[in-house]
Amino acid sequence: MPKKMHIKKVLIIGSGPIQIGQAAEFDFSGSQACRAMREEGVRVVLVNSNPATIQTDPEMADAVYIEPLRSDIIAKIIAKEKPDGILSGMGGQTGLNMTAELAEMGALKDVEILGTPLEAIYKGEDREKFRDLMQQIGEPVPKSVILTSLNQIDDAIAAIGLPAVVRPAYTMGGAGGGIARTREELTRIVELGLSRSRIHQVLIEESVLGWKEIEFEVMRDSANTCIIICGMENVDPMGIHTGESVVVAPILTLRDDEFQMMRSAAIKIIRALDVQGGCNVQFAFLNGEYRVIEVNPRVSRSSALASKATGYPIARVAAKIAIGLRLDEITNTVTGCTPASFEPAIDYIVVKVPRWPFDKFKGADRTLTTAMKSTGEVMAIGRTIEEAFMKAKRSLDTDVQTHTSPSEIRMILSRPTDERFHCLFDALRQGFTIDEIVQLTAITPFFLEKIKNIVEQEKRLASGTCSREDVIRAKGYGFSNADIAQISGKTQQEIDAITGTPAYKMVDTCAAEFPAKTPYFYSTYETDSEIVPTDTKKVLILGSGPIRIGQGIEFDYCTVHAVKALKEEEGVEVHIVNNNPETVSTDFDTSDRLFFEPMQLEDVINILKTDRYFGVMVQFGGQNAVNLAVPIEKEMQRLGLSTRILGTSPDAMDIAEDRDRFSVLLKKLNIPCPANSSAYSESEAHAMAEKIGYPVLVRPSYVLGGRAMEIVHDEHELETYMKEAVRVSRNHPVLIDSYLQNAIELDVDAVCDGE
After folding, report:
1. How large is the greatest C-alpha to C-alpha distance in the chain, in angstroms?
2. What pLDDT, in 10s, does the model give residues 675-726?
3. What's the CATH fold of domain 352-499?
4. Structure pTM?
């Protein structure tokens, strides 16, 4: 089918502010859509209210409106710009809801809804229409009833029973939903769900808690050609939102006939919905049976993961399908020689682990349910599940508490929280059997066996007879050199001498069947690295890792702009290391070379050792990257590398970050500041606070977004605080300031060229 030549101008709606369940992934999809449209000569009008996004840059679209995402405001923009079409599926639930509202108010009478038709959106999002459609095409869905009022609660319990799952219509990330085990819980969740739903409708569904959750990312064009981009399997069973789950790709624990059964069902469903573009289909599976759970007729967080896991540009292809192109007419930009109709094939393992904000919200309910609480996620690539699991754990950059009490471990495993994935390791260390853990968690034994392999390897390292082969096997399982040294008691130098540097393998969408044009790499401890060193002037930029409170999409924006700026300088090759699959910076063609790796010292240094790098930039990746500046500089000097930290020197960064050194500088410059001091111990802290006088403002050095910053009023509060602060920033002092009450805060942004 030829491109729709009458489509000259397209409106793209963004997703608005970052929120739980709707984060950087929609800047990634929206940015890809903008680029795809303009590649085809289509003018783009973008509407979004989030200034921290790449898509709101003036050069991304022909017209950018930074306006509230309300249907009445967007209707005025439509009247002014007169777009020929609207692309609804790139702005998450917000974009989808706005499109439906605009259509219902008559604002789209002269505007074509591109890609997935409005009726498909209704059928995918309206729980009742979706259930009826599945029944029409013979696809099994959990028994369910639709509620539009609290008065229907008793009828729902009679029809479905308890526990029951509540799924509001037209919401994002399971917002307003949950699992109800009692009538009181059901009433509370339904009331919230009705208020969150755009059409005041919730689905009450029979529980499939404990079933395996399987996802397929599917792509379809207007000629009815369908391909599976990626099959993904949740380590966590049903009952936990897929965005809250540890996810593995490809699907590993199904027999081929079981896989083909659900693959065929996913294609049947996308055709029945008439989705044109990408969509995500979710299944529950148990003992040869499956149930269709839901379909997202748009790109989602899972789409971003599938895109980065395979290297297949889902949002870009979906945008081109929306203006009439067929899959066989769209080139796969990763290979440059295959059409987008080729299903991706991967010869590695991908693991995604969510990142939760509970380090900022100590009193929050940490229970994981069908409503999302995570702010972001990390993705790791390895040749084995063990390696990908361990690389993902290192990528999270969280403080992991080790649990040794069997009763505490049972409690954590039986009630899913953000601690459960890490606690699986603790359980196996404490002698829990696989069967015991399955009873507590309903996690597939296959994954537990893989975690057991890691724990057994820990025991071999700690045995006192750790051999060279044990160290090499541990590297194949994703252990860092620092981990091995700590567990085995060997020195870092001894471990370094055994392990050497990793090989780097390419993500190419086709399991090396065709050559790839786009250099996108992950490390593994095998032979035959696919990186060929060159003499080109290279700069490595450190990304910001997973989205978390205080370190969000703004650092992705900075990273991408740094890449663009350096690419303007002739002869400079720009590389990125990051582990966040939601971002524009980890798009396959943002940089000249992309490394999907943990943001740890060892991993960054290994990259620098693979090629001749001119410099490293750390100031664009937020606090994580800045924290690495001094350690990277010291390690490069130790190794004799000619690479240097570009921009602000690590010593200058240390003065700004180390509260003690910064205070000394202010005194030297005669710049007034509150009475302050620093402390490395609890006793020092008490003495300094007493001298300054309560209340005091206490904060650790080298932390992000005010993490662990508190106003302390007395000795007891200070004692409690110091335990947390030392855990957050072990190697740096805690600064104690006199608390200035009723002061006005002013920010000044400045730029200096060093002169």
Report:
1. 78
2. 888 787 888 888 889 999 999 988 876 665 556 778 899 988 888 888 765 5
3. Carbamoyl Phosphate Synthetase; Chain A, domain 4 (1.10.1030)
4. 0.89
Domain ranges of the chain: 9-114, 143-206, 209-344, 352-499, 511-654, 671-738
Q: Where are the alpha helices (DSSP H) in 658-714?
A: 659-668, 682-692
DSSP string, 391-425: HHHHHT--PPPP---HHHHHHHHHS-BTTHHHHHH
Q: Let me know if 396 is exposed, middle or buried by CB neighbors in 10 A (0-12, 13-18, 19+).
A: buried
Give the C-alpha separation, 381 to 231, whole Å.
Answer: 15
* Cβ atoms of residues 27 and 584 within 8 Å: yes
* Strand ranges in 447-491 using DSSP code E only, listed in sequence order: none
Sign of CA dihedral 311, 315, 321, 323: negative
Name every residue whose Cβ is closer than 8 Å to that of residue 278 and which is 6 or more positions away in sequence.
Answer: 89, 217, 218, 219, 229, 298, 299, 303, 314, 315, 317, 318
Domain topology for 143-206: Dna Ligase; domain 1 (3.30.1490)
Strand residues in 507-636 grouped as ranges (E) = 520-524, 537-542, 572-578, 593-596, 615-617
Q: Please give the structure tokens belonging to residue 608.
A: 């620098």
How many CA atoms within 13 Å lie on the side-chain side of 544? Answer: 27
Distance in angstroms between the alpha carbons of the first and the last residue of the chain: 59
Q: What is the pLDDT of residues 474-507, one digit of tens each?
A: 999 999 999 999 999 999 889 999 998 999 999 8
Does 209-344 carry CATH code 3.30.360.10? no
Locate 121 and state its tokens: 């959106």
